[in-house]
Amino acid sequence: MPASSVALIGNPNTGKTTLFNKLSGARAKTSNFPGTTTAMRVGRTMVGEHPIDVIDLPGLYSLDGHTPESVIVRDVLRGEGVARPGAVIAIVDAANLFRNLVLVGEVLTFDEPVVVVLNMVDLAERLGQRLDVAALSRRLGVPVIPMVASKGVGLDALRAAVAALPAAGEQVRPADLPAAGPDGPASIGGPSIEAFTTWAEGVLADAYPGGAPAAALDARTERIDRVLTHPVSGTLVFLGVMGALFWTLFALATIPMDLIELTFASLGAGVSAMMAEGPIRDLLTDGVIGGIAGTVVFLPQICLLFFMISLLEDTGYLARAAFVNDRIFRRFGLPGHAFVPLLTAHACALPAIMSTRLIPDRRDRLATILIAPFMSCSARLPVYVLLTTLLFAERPALAGLAFAGCYLLGSAAAFFSAWLFSRTGLKGRPRAMVLELPTFKRPSLANAFFTARDQGLAFLQTAGTVIVAICIVMWWLSAYPKVEPSAEVVSMRTQGLEAEADVLHARAEQAGSYAGQLGRAIQPVFAPLGYDWQLTVGVLTSFLAREVFVSTLSVLVGGGAEAEPDEGVMDRIRTMTRDDGSLVFTPATAASALIFFVLAMQCLPTLAVTRKETGKLKYAGIQLAYMTTLAYVTALVAYQGLRLFGVS
Amino acid sequence: MSLPVSLEQLTVGALARFHGTDLDPEACHQLRSLGLTTECQLRLCKKGEPCIVQVRSTRIGISQEVARRIMVVPLTSGV
Fold first, then answer.
1. Chain B residue with the nearest C-alpha to that of A232
2. Residue A436: in which H helix or E strand, if any?
3. CATH 3.40.50.10900: does it fit domain A5-216?
4. Distance between A221 CA and the closest CA of chain B, angstroms
5. Which of A328, A467, A493, A523 has the most neighbouring CB atoms within 10 Å?
6. Which chain B residues contact residue A323 at CB under 8 A?
7. Does A627 score more than 80 pLDDT?
8. What's the pTM value of the predicted model, to 2 decimals?
């Protein structure tokens, strides 16, 4: 009878995830390790007639030390906080056996029965390495299974070896294995990495009858590395790769995003047609369906981005790219790893914050999460288009410059804030980079697919539920209390002017809603920025998502709720008046609003993801307070400064 | 016997033995877990930012700031 569960342990880049996917395929479930934000995947595979759980543990180099990965794997092997696995599959890179054996030695100090998977034996053979597998197995005292996990070679032998494993404590350990410390395996006072290194050298000497392979230099890898890490050619390659990545992201994600919006719009219309008018129908169509649509619409970007990042990571390129960016980023207190999240944030801050999982150091990761939303995401585009057009109505060249300036301002604010955080709340310099440069490999489409699926599901299960709830609350604030149609609206309807009456009534409802009332109440706060109550309502309603600002203004001037208003509506927004009859959008007000929207945290879903990824509400609060304050102060300075120079 | 020198002082292709470093314990642990343990033999593959060394079959990228503080004993005439 085989063990009921088996844990997969191995160094990074040994093909552990590939083996996990081969063993458990599409049946894996992702969750977090108890008390951490580190993801754990559990799948199921059949060993003979028996189903067993396969636990994919984070890749690590050593059980020693205080890295989150070491702590988690030690806890799992000790059964602390989680059920202890019945057996361990230790996966090693056949072409890089020496360093991998250090971890195997550490794992062998535990009681769990172990199978060693010697992965990528094809690569080792191509390098001319002649390993005696039987001798290695005898030396380690455990079964050793040669495999090419990416092709499924050796899977049956692995299953058979797992089925034949003895009970815990019954495998005989090598006599020369460094003994565990007084407090048990992998504990303080136990053997050092050096002790396991010496032991691994002895094992290697026995396993290679012709002598352990020398550290041969791979001329092709040398040449590629020189290009990819060079300050000029490395930067050019990086810009090319990222350009291709984001072009693909924008080009391909648009199709499913449009489809999702269309599907939910049809669903809303269908439900609306089936139900009688009333609050329940409004709640279902505008609140629930609208809220779910507003969440699911992010999925294509998230899945596609993680699909492509997984492909890039598999090739071994990301480690090289991290060094290229590290030169610049370090000056601002950010690690080179931050480049993927910060670039991604130009599409959407949600996948950007999720992709900070690539950053190993917690301080560096927090700094990146806090500043990522400063990058101008695609949701800001309609707002930028509207406000730059209002600012430079007859001067498209200047409007274009202002548009580009928004991107620059956002990036400058991000790097300034990172620099500021590194000297205040997140004191310290980013960890100097020391990274393994993995062998260049062909990426696995299956791995990329499973990664995209898991990240998409994780987003829906955690952040998604919060986002839907927030959407419903914001919808309620914008839609209630209901305002009775005015005499003018009733009169228009009797004259058959239904469309005009609807527009007028929508404007009155917007103004009379809780959000509208709140807008009037807190307008004095925004008065120094030049905003009247209507602009304040726009700022409040767009707290859900920035693009709502445009549809709110459109409704307030009597247009529909479209994200891209037509020319007639644009003219009406341009000529919107305050209660005293003066224009709402003077150049100073438009500039102030533009700056506010570049810098402000007007995106509740982003805050939900920040809370989830940092594990603390506090960081979402800090992000909101810091970004809003910076936006407010900068917009205030711009507005008052322009007025001082006679621009009003 | 050669005296220890900083890793960044080696010439590309030179062989050396890891001698020690004054980096913080966490950074030391990171180096050790990647295979840069006391007395291990390494080859310098690339200088500059980043510096690339090979320890047996493992290629390790090391930022210049760290490379400066890693002391090695040259085994070939490569300084």
1. B49
2. strand A434-436
3. no
4. 10
5. A467
6. 49-50, 61, 63
7. yes
8. 0.76
